[in-house]
Amino acid sequence: MTAKRMIGVDVGGTFTDIFSLDLRSGAASVAKVPTSRPDQSAGFLDGIRHEAPDMGEITTVVHGTTAGTNALLERKGARTGVITTAGFRDVLEMRRRDRPRTWGLRGDFTPVVPRDLRREVPERTRADGTVETPVDLDAVRSAAAELRAAGCEAVVVLFVNAFANPENEAAAVTVLRAAWHNDHVAASSEILPEIREFERFSTTALNGYLQPEVAGYLARLETALVEGGFGGEFMIVQSNGGVMSVDTARRLPVRTALSGPAAGVIAAGYIAESAGFSNVITGDMGGTSFDVSLIANGESVLSPQTAIDFGLVIRTPMIEIATIGAGGGSIGSVDAGGLLQIGPESAGSDPGPVAYGRGNDRPTVTDANIVLGRIDAAWPLGDGLGQLDVDAARAAIETHVGQPLGLSAMDAAEAIIRVANSHMAGAIRLVSIERGFDPERFVFMPFGGGGALHAGAMIEEVGLGRALVPRYPGVTSAMGCVIADMRQDFVQTIGALAAEIDTSALAAQMQDHLDQGHRVLDAAGTEFAAREVRFEMDMAYLGQTHTVAVPLEVRVTEGRVAPLTQDALKTAFEATYRGIYGRLLAGSAIRVLNLRSTVIGKRPKFDLSSLAPAAAASVETAARGTRPVYAGGAWREAAVFDRLALPVGAQIEGPAVLEQPDATIFVEPWLAASVDAHGNILIERKEGAAR
Amino acid sequence: MSAAIDPITLAVLAGRMEQIADEMDATLFRAAFNPIIAEAHDASHGLYHADTGETLVQGKNGLPIFVGVMAFAVKAVIDKAAEQGGPQDGDVWIFNDAHIGGTHLSDMRLVRPYFRDGELFCWLASVGHWHDVGGAVPGNYNPSATEVFQEAVVVPPVRLLKGGDVQTDIRDILMRNTRLPLSAEGDLNGQLGALDLGVKRLDALLDEYGGETVGAALSTLSNRAETLLREEVGRLPDGRWEAQDFLDNDGISDTALPVKVALEVHGDRLKLDFTGTAGQAAGPINIARPTAIACVYVAIKHIFPTLPANAGVMRPIEIEIPEDCLLSAEFPAPTGGYTETILRMIDVIFSAAAQAAPERVVANAYGTINALSIAGRRSDGSRWVMFSFYGGGHGASNAGDGLNHGNAPISMATIPPVEILEAAYPVVFREWALRPDSAGAGAHRGGLGAIYEIEVLEENGAEAFFFGERGRFPPKGIAGGGDGALNRFDYEQADGWQQPPLASKMVGIRLDRGQRVRLQTPGGGGYGPAAERDPAKVARDVRLGYMTADRADQCHGTAWREIEQ
C-alpha cells in the first residue's frame, strides 16, 4: 500500500486551509494558501500539493465547500425550469405568506425560478395518495421542450401531495430524463418525500438551481486531482456534519448549504471530546458575523431546515448555527437616543477596520482590540496588511463613540468591546440557557481568527465553565473534514395514527432506507470503523401542531429490520413526551407524521496528540516580553507569548497575550491559561478570582 | 428610579431585558397547544411599569398589535389590585375583557406583579389567542354578533393565582366555557410557564446588576425612545394632512363606514385626530379605545421601524378619538372583527403621512384579515373546522415594488401548507396562485394578491363563514400610485356562482359535495405615477403574467411594447 495520507480542504473567502494527516505515523500538519478566484480549484490544488507533492499517496480528500451557499446568496445558479400541478405554479413565489422583517413593510422577493419558467400540467394526487388525475405526459413533453428552448439547464417536477404517492412525479420524471439534454432532472419526491409543499418544492428547486454550478465545480476539482495522480476517494461535507461521496453531492448539492461551518463544528466537538469535554459551545467570529453552535453529550444539535436568505428555504437536517451580526468588522456608533450600537453595519474585511488604512473611517470591533493593545499593531494578522495604523483607529473611536458618550478614547474602546461581548453572549444564551442547557457545564470553543480574543468575556458574561482554544483555531473546518463520519439522512411522511399504523409497511420503509444507506457506504471504497443506524419518528397527540422527535429502538438482525408493534410506538412516544413536557395527555390519540432514518459509517479517528508541541518546547523560549494592554479601565503590563512554542503543561497567569500566525488569545487579568496534552489552551478563572 | 446610568451598562441591559421578553415568547410558542399561538405566534410578553403599567420592554417576536395594547391590560389590573388591597407576590390576574384590555375576547391576558426585596418592581404579562372561548361560533369570529355575549364568555380581571396558589374555582369556570378545554388548558399552562420564566430571569438580572441600576436603565430607555421619536418627527415638515377611507359595512346593515384621520406635525410633536370617523357600529367591527391607541403605535413603528418597543415612543403623540365612535366602542358592543378596523386605521395613517413625507411611507397593503371558516361533520359524526386567514399584496414604496402575497401589517402569521390542510380536512384546493392584475399600478407597483379556490369533498357537505373587508373600497396607492384590486369572494350553489350581499361578510353558506368557494384577495397600492414606470419593468410584468397586456396599455401606455424580450 503506497497511499497513506488523508487531506481535508476548506475553501474560505480569503484563504484555502489544508489539514493533512499521515495515516501511518499519525502525524498531522496544516497549511494556508490564498484562495484563487474566480476558479477556486487552482488554490485547492496548490494547497494539496503544498502538503502532499505526490498525490498518488493520498487515500482520501474531503472538502468543505461554500460554492453552493455563495451561488444562492449571489443568485448565480443555473436557469431552472419547473413543471408543476395545474393551479399551483406560484407556490415557490407565494412562500408561506411571510415577510422579510416585522417592521417597515418594505422589501420584495424574487424566486430563483421566474414565473414564465414555471409550467403547469394536468395531474392531481389527493392527500391520501389517491391519484385523482393521472399526469398528462404529452403536456410534460411539450413543457420540457419549451423550457429547454427558453435556455433552462435544469428542470424539476413539483407535484402537490407527491409525498403521499410519487406515481405521477415518477412518470413525469421518466419522460423528462429521456428527453432532457443533461442529467439535471429531479422530482420533489426524490429529494424530500415529506409533507408541506412549499418546503419540499423550495428544497427541490434550489437543488436544481445549484446542480449545474456545483456539479461543474466538483467535476473540475476531481479532474484536476486525477490529473495530479490522485487515485483515492473524493468526498464532500454535508450540512448535517457528515460526509457524502462526490457523486451524491453532484446529485444533492442542496445538502452542501452549510458544508464549511458544519465541518468546523464537527472538529470542535472532536477536539473537546479528546480533551475530556463532551458539552461544547462553539463560537466562530468572522468579519461580519459571529456563529454559535451547541454540542451536548458529544452530539451536535441539528435543525430540520434553514433559510439561506428570505424565502430561500432548504429543508434537510443541518447543524444548528445561530448567527448574529457582530464580527471584527462590525461598526460601533452612537444613535440619536444616545445608545451605543455595534453593527449591523460592517466594514467586513474590505475595506476592513480603520487601522487597515483602506478607506473606512468608522471604528470597528477590531479597531477597539488594536487600540486596547490586545492585537499587536506591530505584528499584524493576515497577509500584506503591513503596519496597522493605531492612531487612526484611536481617532475614529474618539470621534464616533468617545465624544458622543463623554468617554476617553480608551474607555470608549473598552465600551465597544463590552457591548460587542454582550451581543455575542446573547447569541450563546440563545442556544444554551433558552434551550434549557446550563452554561456552567459547557466549555466555550472559539475558532476562526477573532473569537479567542473574546473567550474570557464569554466565561464572565454567560457563566460558561471554561474556554478551550484549539491549537490551530484558523483551520478548524479543514480538520473537521478529516474527522467527519459518512452520513445519510432519509425522510418519508407516513401520516397515520399510532394505533392503526401498518407495522409491516413501516418496517419495509425502514428496510428501504437502511438498504439505500448501506449501498452508499459500500460504494464509498473507504474503511469504516463501525456502522450505525438510527430511526426516529415525528409524533404528536392528535390535534397538536408541534411534533416531537421520538427515537425508536429497532432490532436489526443480519441486515433485516424487525417490525415494531403499535404498542412499542406508543411507549416510545410517551417516554419522549414525558421527558419534554413532564406529563401525558390521557385518552388522546397519537399521530405519526414522518419517519426519519440515519445511516452512519464511522470513520477511524486519529490521535490529536500528534498536534501537540514538541517535547523541547519551554515557556522561556516562547516568551516575547511584555506590552501594555488596557483592561478594566487601566493600563496593565501583559506578558506576551508565542502560543505555538509553549510546552505541554505551561501555566500562564493573566493578563497575558498569546499570539500565533492566524489568531490572538487574550487572557484577562482574572483568568489563567494552561496548555493541555494536545496543545489546546484551556482558560479558567484564577483560583478564588472575582472581578 | 434614579436617572443616572453609564452608557455601557445601559446598552448591555437593553439587550438583556429584551432577551428576557423574547425568551418568554419562545417558551409559550413551544408549549402552546393551539396553532394560532404555536404557528402564527398570536401572543406577546413584556415588562411593564410598576405604577403606570406603561410598556418598558416587549418581545420582538410577538404579534405587532400587542406592542402597546398590553399597557392597558396591565393598567386595568393595577386598578383592580388597588381595589383589592394591592398585589401580593405570587398573584396572577387573568382576563379577556376587550373593552378594558383591548383587541378581542379570544386574547387571554395573564398579569403578574414582580417583587424585589418586598417591593413591587414591575409587572410581567402574557397574552395569547386561545382557540375557543365559548360564544355562538367556534373560534369566536362571529360576523353577525351585536353584543360581546354572542362572541365569547367575558372574563373580567380576576385572580387565578393568589400568593402562588391556583384558585381552582376560576380555572373550572374557564375550562367549562370552551369547546376545546384540552387546548385551553395547554395554552394556560404555557402562559403561566412563560411568566415563571420571566420571574426567574429577572431575579438573575437583578442579582447581577442590582435593582437600582436596572430601574435606572428602564427609565432611561423610555426617555431614549421618546428622544428618538422626537428626532424622527422633527424631520417631517410642519402641517396638517387628512385622509379618509371606508369599511364596507358592519356585517349587519349594508352601510359604508368612514375612517378618517387628520395628522398634524408641530415641530417634534405629532397629533392624530380621528374626528369624522363613523359612530359605534351594531356589528363586530368596533374597537375599544385601548386598541385604537395601540394601533397608532403599530402604524408609527412601521413608518419609523428602528424605534424601540416601549411607551416612551407614545409621549410626544396626542391622539383624539371622539366619544360614541367606532374607535372608542363601549361595553357590550361586539369587537370580534377588530382586525379589519385597525388595518383601516393603519391605511389612513399611511395615506396621511404619505402627503407629508412619501419617502417614509409604504402604500396600503391588502387591508383585510380574510377569516374564512369551512366546517361540517364527517360521516362518523366528528366535527371539523378549517379556519384560516388568507394573504394579499403589500404596498409599494420609494424603495421598490410591494411584496407579493404577504401577511397583514398587524401580524407575522404564516399560512398553513395546502398539503397539511388537505390531509386534515375533507377539502381539495383547485387553485393556490398569484392574482394577475391585482396590484396597484405606479412607478413602483404594489405586491400581488392571491387566488384560493377550495372544493368540498365531504359527502355531508359543509357550511362556510366569511369575515373580510375591502370588497367595495380598494387599498390605496400613495404619491400618485394607483389602487389595488378589490377583495372578491364567490361561492358555488346549485344555480351557479354567487357573491355575498354584503360583499365581504357572510354566515351559514351551505355547500354540497363538489361545490367550491373562490377567494381573490387585493394587491397592494402603487407608489408614484404609473406613467413613470420603467417600460422594461412593465414588459417584464406582462411576460411573467403579473399583468395582462390590456391592463399594461391602460396603466402605462404602450412604450413597453417596444422593449426587446
What can you see in these coordinates?
The N and C termini of chain A lie far apart (58 Å). Chain A has 17 helices and 35 strands. Chain A is α+β, with helices and mostly antiparallel strands and 691 residues long. In chain A, 30% of the residues lie in helices and 29% in strands. Chain B is α+β, with helices and mostly antiparallel strands and 565 residues long. Among the domains of chain B are: 7-227, no CATH class; 362-533, no CATH class. Chain B is 30% helix and 22% strand. In chain B, a hairpin with a 2-residue loop joins β6 (158-162) and β7 (165-166). Chain B is globular, with a radius of gyration of 24 Å. At the A-B interface, α3, α7 and α12 of A face α1, α7, α10 and β14 of B.
Keywords:
A: 691 residues; alpha+beta; Nucleotidyltransferase, domain 5; Dna Ligase, domain 1; nine-stranded mixed β-sheet; six-stranded mixed β-sheet; 35 strands; B: 565 residues; five-stranded antiparallel β-sheet; 12 helices
Mean pLDDT, all residues of chain A: 90
Q: Major sheet of chain A: size, sense and barrel closure?
A: 9 strands, mixed
The outline of chain A comes out as globular
As a whole number of angstroms, the C-alpha radius of gyration of chain B is: 24 Å
Report the oligomer: heterodimer
- What is the radius of gyration of chain A? 27 Å
Q: How big a fraction of the residues of chain A is strand?
A: 25-35%
Total strand count of chain B, please? 20
Spatial separation of the terminal alpha carbons of chain B: 66 Å
Please tell me what the overall shape of chain B is: globular
Task: Extract low-pLDDT stretches of chain A.
Answer: none
Largest interface: A-B, 67 and 73 residues
Spans where pLDDT lies below 50 across 5 or more residues of chain B: none
How far apart the termini of chain A lie comes to 58 Å
Derived structural class of chain B: alpha+beta
- Helix tally of chain B equals 12
From the helix content, strand content and strand pairing of chain A, which structural class follows?
A: alpha+beta
For the sheet with most strands of chain B, the description reads:
7 strands, antiparallel
